[in-house]
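Format is sequence with structure; example below:
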Amino acid sequence: MQQLANGLHDAGRDRPWVVVSSPFGTAVPEIGIDQLSGQIGDVARVFLIETGELTRQLGDLLPAQFQVYGSAGRSYPVGDAFADLARSRLRFTHGDPQHATDQLVTDALAHAHQAGLFALAPASVITVDGTVKGFMLGGSRALVELDGGGMATVWQELTYPPVPLDWTLKPGQRIKGALDAPTHRLNVEAKPPSVAAIAQRYPDGSITLALVQKVSPQRAVLALHPHLAFTITRADISANPLDKVDALLSEGDVVAARVIHLPSGALHLCLSDVDDDETVLPPLCAVRNGPPWLQENRPLLPLVEEDEDAAAVVEVVGTTSSFEAAAAAAAVPAAWPVGTPGHSALVAAGPTAGRLHPRPSPGPGRVHAALRPATTGAIPFRVTPIPPPAPHSALQSTQLSLAEAKSRIVRLETQLVEAGATDSDLAKLREQARSAQLQLRDALVELATLRHTVAELRDDQRAQRRMLRESRRTTPAPTAVSEYESRRAAWEEPSGWVRHEILLAWVDRVPESDREEWKLPQNYVLGERFAESLTGLDDGQLAKAFKASVDVLTGRVKTLKGRHLHALRQGAGPADPHLLRWDGARCMRVSIEQNTPAARRMHFWQLPDGGIELGRIVTHDDMEA
C-alpha cells in the first residue's frame, strides 16, 4: 500500500497509473481489467485492488477525495496527480461496468497524450491512409475506412484535446496517420506550423480568427493553432486602463485578431483595432485536408460532467487482510490471473518491464525519460458500497436514460466496426439511434416545461397569500413619502435625475479614501429604456438599482461575487453565443436582488471602446437585452 501511494505521489512518473477496485466480498472486478490492459497497457500501468480494510489506510495516504473504492476506478495523471480533482475522476460502474471501463480508457489516454507518451511510436504502429466516414459519440470519435481494408477510429483525446474532432476532420476527408493495429486507434495529430509558415500565410496587419484559451484580469492566451498560442495583455485588447481582460473575453471565445510582425521576427496578436468590416483570412487547418479549425460564432464550450464522486457514499468495514499479506503478494508475477490463490490483492496489468518502450517525460520538447523497471505491490481492501439514490424526478430519470442510450449506441457501433459491419448496417443503427434520442429529448423538453410551470404557479400562490394577509389588516398603513419621487419632481428630464441619483449613490457607497481607486466615469451612457425601467420600483428597489449602477460604472462589480456578473447569451442554452449588438457591444447581466420573487437584475452594454451603457432594470426571468 505504501509503495502504491508513493508511486501515485511521485511527480516523476513517466506514465499515468490506473487503479481499479473490486466489489465488496470478491476479488473479481466489475470493470474490464483485460480491456484496460489491451487498450491502454502500452501507455499506462493498471492496478487491481481488492476491497478491504486497507482502503482506509490508502485514503489516509492520499489527499482527500482522491481514493479509490467501491468497484470504481481512477486514472492518476503524471506530474502532480492531485492538483485538480476534475482531471482524475472516480469512475463508478452504477450498474454499467462497460461504461465505467470506457471512461477509464478515455481518461488514461488523455493523460498519456498530455504526458507526450504518443510522441514515440511502438513497434505495432504503421503509417496508413484512409477516408473519414463519419463521427460517433457526439463527435468524440471519427470512423475511418482504411485504403488497405478494415476500419479505424480517431479519438478526440489524442487529437488536439479538448478541440472537438468535427472542428479538425470532415466526412470524405483523405487523411494519413499512425495506426496502432492492436487497438485500431489512428493518430492524425500533426506538428504545429512554424512561426515562419504562419508569417507567410498571414501578412503583417492581416486579420484571422483565434481561440481564447485562458484569461486573467490582465492577460489572455490566444491560439491560431491548437498547439500554437500567443499571450497578449490588456493594452492589446482595450485602451481603457480600468478594463479587465476577463470581463471582455471568456475562455472558449473565437475572436478576430490582427497578426503583427515584430522587428525581431516574432509574431504578436492584437484585438483593440480590429474593425467589423475588415477581411478575415481563413484560419489554419489542424489536420491536412481538413476544414479550418475555427469558425466565427462557434465558441469552444467546456464539457460539464455530472459529479459522480458526490453521488457515492461508502462504508469502510474491517477485514482479516494484513500488510504482511500485501507485501507477500508483491512478489506474485503480473501474469497470474485475478482470483488465483496468493494473488487476491493487487496486480499490475499491462506490459512487463521487458516490453516497456522508452517514453518522454513531461515537459517541453521530446525529452526521453530513463527506463524504469515495473514494480508491483499488493493492497487488499474491502468496501461496502451504498448505491446512489434513485432519480427523484422523471426529468432526472429521462436524462440518465438519454446518457445511457448514447453510451450503449457508441459501444455497439465500435463492436460492429470491429466485426466488419458494412456502412449500410451502421447507417441503420444511426437512424434508429437518432429516432430514440429525439423521443428522449422531446420528453426532456416537456418535463422541463412542466417544472417551469409548477415554479410559476408556486410564485403566484405565494403572491396571493401575501395579498390576502395584507387585505385582512383593518388599519391601512400610512403611505410613506418617497424621497426618490420628491427629488425626481425637481428635474425636467428623467436622465438628469438618474445621473444625479447615481452620483449620490456613489458618494454614499464609496468611502472617500477609496474614491480615487473607484472613480465614477463622466462619459457613461444611459440607454433609451433605462430611466423608464425604474418606473414602478419602490424606494428600496431604487436604492439597490442605483448601488448596482455604481458598482458597474466604477468596475467594482468584477470584485463582488454577489453581483453574479456574466454575459447574456442569445439563447437559454449554455452553448449559445454571447449576445452582441450591431456595434460590437457585449450585453452583460448583474444581480440587484437575491432570494425574492421576481428578483431584479440589471442589463448593461460593455462598449468596444471600454465604456459602459446602462441598459435597463429587469426581473429575473426577463432575458431580453
Observations:
- The domain at 1-118 is CATH 3.40.30 (Glutaredoxin).
- The two ends are 58 Å apart (CA to CA).
